[in-house]
Amino acid sequence: MMAMALALSACSAANKTPTSPSSLPAPPSTIVYTAIGASDAQGIGSSVECTPFVACPNGLGYVQVATRQLQANGYTVSLSNLGIPTATLGRDFQDLGNQNGHLVVSNFIDGEAPVVPSTSTLITIFAGGNDVNVVTSALGRGLGASDQVGYINAQVKAFGADYATLLSALRARAPSARIVALNLPNMGALPFLAGSSAQQRQAAQLLSVGMTSSVINPLTAQGVLVIDMMCDPRAYQPVTYSSDGFHPSDVGYAWMAAEVVSAATTNYKSPQASCAQMSLIPQ
Prior knowledge:
Elements: E1 30-36, H1 62-72, E2 76-81, H2 91-99, H3 108-111, E3 122-126, H4 129-140, H5 148-173, E4 178-182, H6 198-216, E5 225-227, H7 250-265
Parallel strand pairs: 1-2, 1-3, 3-4, 4-5
Helix pairs in contact: 1-7, 2-4, 4-6, 5-6
């Protein structure tokens, strides 16, 4: 059994002083919205899924719903949805997946950050779900067998380094953008792993809690707004997920969209440093 303790120090996910705008947008101003993500950004699992790089104004993913809500609130919204299904955060996780039977066609750093419009005033990032699955797949093939917790800690550290690279690239391309990151729920407790081994669920918990608590949540000190999926009870309700147990349902995407709108237009709350949801899977 894995020990719950993670030998992780808080990663410095960005070394530059944040350049997020200090003032909040007010209607009828224009929001130039860029979404960085994977299949979630295209609403996979919803009743109206979208195709990458094709206009999808009626989509029911959180990106499309948030865009319509902002428009209903009086904003003009210009959307660039860069989400690529299967994408991981960085090339290292993409390669790890493809080397271990887990198809990954792109990554955020190489495939999405370079084409972010320089005029973006809002950028959302939802990273980590595919990365967790890549690492658990690698563990299932025997990687890290002599020290699984040590291997997981190393992957969380690599995720932090990738996140720093992504943020640096985004701030260089769009220095006026308000950046909103969604952290991860405890993936070990999600429906898609309900029938998996205790060891796989423990690994998913260690990875997602580590990425959230030591990489994503600390970004608030660097000007990034963080939507707290880890500690929100709604992240663990069956209705939140589609039939595959991994992708959100219409209900789940609607919840995420409402949080994105709030983070984009208000003085948004900080994520919780700890909560009971971080230890749902016994170690």
